[in-house]
Write a structure and sequence with these properties.
163 residues, alpha/beta, five-stranded mixed sheet, 5 strands, globular
């Protein structure tokens, strides 16, 4: 008899979000805002990235943008149908626009972004029926872990007189 019970089995969203959190920790370790993203296609990760704005001196180097580019290269198509994006922080307007443009049908995020969230909080870009594509969105997956990492980072940055 197996000792696998509902209490010790992770939901698939948690498994992929843990991978996104690993990327967020990598960003944190590099002095970047700790946001990580993975894109899953047919049950396997085809892209994973973390924020690299400081490293690359590129305002568009958000985790989601880098992961979308990687996924498109992996699939050799800009249409990322049958993919799910997992990201630790609710995407901003730029990233939400890229989600729509790349045809990602499902987005799962960890914690809401009250200052820039464009999937649920400030804007609903990914579900705007006036656009040619919409994505279903699920927020709050591993929210406390995602939120705690961001809060720790910004607490440290303030203590250093940054950000």
């Amino acid at each position: 008899m197996s000792d696998i019970t509902p209490a010790n089995v992770l939901h698939p969203h948690d498994i992929w979000m843990k991978r996104a959190l690993d990327q967020a920790v990598a960003a944190y370790d590099q002095g970047e805002v700790p946001v990580g993203a993975v894109i899953v296609h047919n049950g396997r990760i085809i892209a994973e990235a973390c924020n690299q704005r400081e490293t690359l001196n590129d305002p568009t180097a958000h985790a989601e943008m880098i992961a979308i580019t990687q996924a498109a290269q992996s699939l050799q198509s800009w249409r990322l149908i049958d993919c799910t994006l997992y990201v630790t922080l609710e995407p901003c307007p730029m990233c939400a626009g890229a989600i729509v443009q790349s045809r990602i049908p499902f987005v799962v995020y960890g914690t809401a972004d009250p200052k820039g969230g464009a999937c649920d909080t400030l804007f609903n870009i990914t579900s705007d029926i006036r656009l040619n594509h919409q994505a279903a969105v699920l927020g709050g997956v591993m929210m406390e872990d995602c939120k705690a990492l961001l809060q720790q980072f910004f607490r440290e940055q303030r203590a250093l007189g940054k950000k």
